[in-house]
Amino acid sequence: MTGNGVVATGGGMARDADARAAGARAGRVICGVDEAGRGPLCGPVVAAAVVLDPEYPIPGLTDSKKLSARRREALAERIRASALAWAVAEASVEEIDRLNILHATLLAMQRAVEALWLPPDLARIDGNRCPALGCAAEAVVKGDATVAEISAASILAKTTRDAWMDEIDRSHPEYGFARHKGYPTPAHLQALRAHGALPIHRRSFGPVRDILQNPPLW
Questions:
Q1: β pairing state of 30-36 and 45-51
Q2: Hey, how many other C-beta atoms are within 10 angstroms of the C-beta on 77?
Q3: Which residues of 179-198 are buried (b: 16+ CB within 10 A; e: fewer)?
Q4: Residue 93 pLDDT greater than 90, yes or no
Q5: What is the mean pLDDT of residues 54-59?
Q6: Neighbours of 138 (CB within 10 A)
Q7: What is the pLDDT of residues 160-197, one digit of tens each?
């Protein structure tokens, strides 16, 4: 990750001129934007922005939550290889605690859109709120299941965040992060009560705040 919250960018770098020409012919460049990680008790919230290539459609795009982990990974690889432009960004745990999860999510979305090498004319955002952007923006409720660009962003955001949680799990297997990805499952809450909160836990979230106020007796 860079210092500005951008995790990774790519797409279409060998076809820059063709991509810009295609966007000009179409009249506008459209990106889809979605996030992963609003509900978990720990870790960053991750957002992705994707500009798909109409010449290289990707079959099977849908809401990432409806896909198996294996299928998500396969589609994420295809998106990174075929999209005209894509970017993944995050807002940190500290930013979540300082700004609240909604505003941190919008910040991550803003960072992802701004990191695209191909500037969009329109950003289609999953949900009912749009971040402040330098282009037109449109909120689309349930867009991750109905708009291909948003579906692609959903898949990149979730696979990126899940990979981060899997890495953390190797350092702290007692919390079971690889299984629950940080969500407040009974197993995660039990681990919090048994082992306390880690620095990656969101202090502003109720279950974590309660543990900090009533730490486990060792």
A1: antiparallel
A2: 12
A3: ebbbebeeebbebbeeeebb
A4: yes
A5: 91
A6: 12
A7: 999 999 999 999 999 999 999 999 999 999 999 999 99
> What is the separation of C-alpha 141 from the centre of its chain, rounded to a whole number of angstroms?
17
Reduced to 3 states (helix: H, G, I; strand: E, B; else coil), residue 171 is helix
Angle at 12 between CA 112 and CA 155, to 5 degrees: 45
Strands 45-51 and 85-91: antiparallel
154 CB-near residues (< 8 Å, 6+ apart): 34, 36, 48, 63, 64, 65, 126, 144
- Whether pTM > 0.90 for this model: the answer is yes
Residue with tokens 């506008």: 28
What are the sequence ranges of the domains in the chain?
Answer: 6-168, 172-213
What token pair was written down for 129?
């709120």
DSSP string, 134-156: SSEEEEETTHHHH-HHHHHHHHH
Identity of the residue numbered 22 = A
**Cβ atoms 30, 149 nearer than 8 A:** yes
pLDDT in tens, 20-47: 556 545 568 999 999 999 999 999 999 9
The answer to whether 197 and 208 are in contact (CB under 8 A) is yes
Domain 6-168 is in which class? alpha beta
Read off the tokens for 50. 């994707």
Write out the E strands in the chain.
6-10, 30-36, 45-51, 85-91, 122-126, 136-140
User: Which residue in this structure is represented by tokens 């289609």?
Assistant: 124
Structure tokens at 210: 């309660």
Residue 180 near residue 22 (C-beta atoms within 8 A): no
